[in-house]
## 1
Amino acid sequence: MADRPSRRSGSRPGAAGTGHGAAGAAPLRRGVDPLRLAAYEVLKAVRVDGAYTNLVLPSVLRQFDLHGRDAAFVTELASSTIRLQGAYDAILATCVDRPLSKVEAKVLDALRLGCHQLLSMRVPPHAAISTTVDLVRAKATSGAGGFANAVLRRVARQDLAAWLAEVAPDPRRAETRHHSIVYSHPRWVVEELAAAVRPGELEALLAADNVPPRVTLVARPGRAARDELPGEPTPFSPYGVVLAGGDPGDVPAVVEGRAGVQDEGSQLVAIAAAAAPLEGRDEHWLDLCAGPGGKAALLAALAAERGARIVASERQEHRAVLVQRAVRGADGVAAVVTADGTAPPYRHGVFDRVLVDAPCTGLGALRRRPEARWRRRADDLLTLVLLQRRLVSSALDLVRPGGVVLYATCSPVLSETAGVVRSVLEARSDARLEDATGLLGVPDCAGPVPGTLQLWPHRHGTDAMFIALLRKVGPAGSQLG
């Protein structure tokens, strides 16, 4: 439940403009509440432009000049509306006299925002309804405003628990469909997560996906000390801090690039990649899929402490720019290169360590990327798995004999984790799976293949990162372990 904003919950004429991104602000129609309009612009950017919620929110907050409680209100309203879209659509479907596919998209966005205020926030019903109606009238038509008013009055007749009891089927007869509605995940996602998590833990995992994550910072070693950062130390990463409150952009070490915003699970991937034991040379490191750069920046700091240097490689040019920003000022960076990881411009056998943080479904980061659950499709899996296999095989070509490849995904889906590891080992006689369980001091994180690791939001409070450690060996060295 979120607090009400410090501004009054009703409309406030004459406030900041609309729009998002770098475009100039358009005049705000009289009577539209700027907080609801800002949240609407986030939903619109996600729907129309394919934006990521956590990336577009800061620009919208800046554009509307929102801070403190107002910024927190908009963040909760926009992010959690997207997280709970499936549940709200099931409720709206019973309150609308036509299929939701026939409701204008901009009106449906506003109705979802209204649902979240009515059912999951401490906003008075009259304020939630009236401000949503004002928003619909500003973005659509007066007639659409009347439609929204009628629909939201129906929504307001009972609370969220009563609605879910009405619209979700009995779990004894249709468990997947029940969980899909109650926990607002597509059915195929529920099925994939059920196959990956331990029996009896599915509901805890689905519930954890709907809890907004706390902001976690990382102090890049050699450049910042953890006690410089405001907040509580993370339980597993020796470099992390859970931000006590406020804007990370106000933390000097973050502004200077000596620290950054990074989930603890992501930090642990970089730590594991650096901690894997090696014999002989340990000078040349590679991050094969480096964008947007958080892991590369931490690896660069760890490399610099040992006299090693890292090449940060990223296929997409705009993401390579983000990597450049993330590693600015770091001593352990050899180069940031825009290159395809499946056909990289590097000599075979030149690297000692390679991190493959592969593109994946992202179903392990649904707390931070709420739109991923609606944007991804089951059909994406095959394409992603084939890419993941090629990237790991490419990394094995690039690493020297005795060197290591750490494969990581922000997904617990078995085809992206155990499936990729097994298929690579079956295809390569020069790779061996190493036991990664001693690399991190994290309890209860055994992965789906012995020796691999799987982090979980409901157990560890991190993204659901998967970690497997492969060592390059001679042609006779392949074994699953």
## 2
Amino acid sequence: MLSFHETHLKDVILVETEGHRDERGSFVRLYCPESFSKAGIDFVSTQINLSTNHKRHTLRGMHWQDPPHAEAKLVRVMTGEIYDVVADIRPDSPTYGRWQAFELSADNQRALFIPEGCAHGFLTLQDETNVLYQMGRTYVPGHARGFRYDDPAFAITWPAVPAYISEADLTWASYSL
């Protein structure tokens, strides 16, 4: 069973699972288009990606795709734990310019639905953290955008200083609110 919870950011939804557990282990439904639709979330997964992260304090983000190739996504941790951050960059949104963080882990089995028009990034909190992305659109090269994780426009509070970050993520320009 899936349950959906509003967050402080418009249309960003925390998804919790309730599965069946017994001496063998557990069985949990991770995604169901019908459940999403009943919750008022227009999302059908068209592509699934896996981000493997070997070291604790690896940072990925802050990323999004420009229209008309903007991507909604459902993010879930398969192993390990992340500090997951969403920043609302939709100018017409009542929560434009705000960010919110969530702890997602293999243990808590939470997922985060991120609508089109939001920037996303995460910091791993454990070694060997794997993050599954279910995408609402197929990735189109040339439309990826981002801003630095320490951009003063958002002043995101990270739980630790990133130890591993790509050169590309370090070269993003500041975001202009």
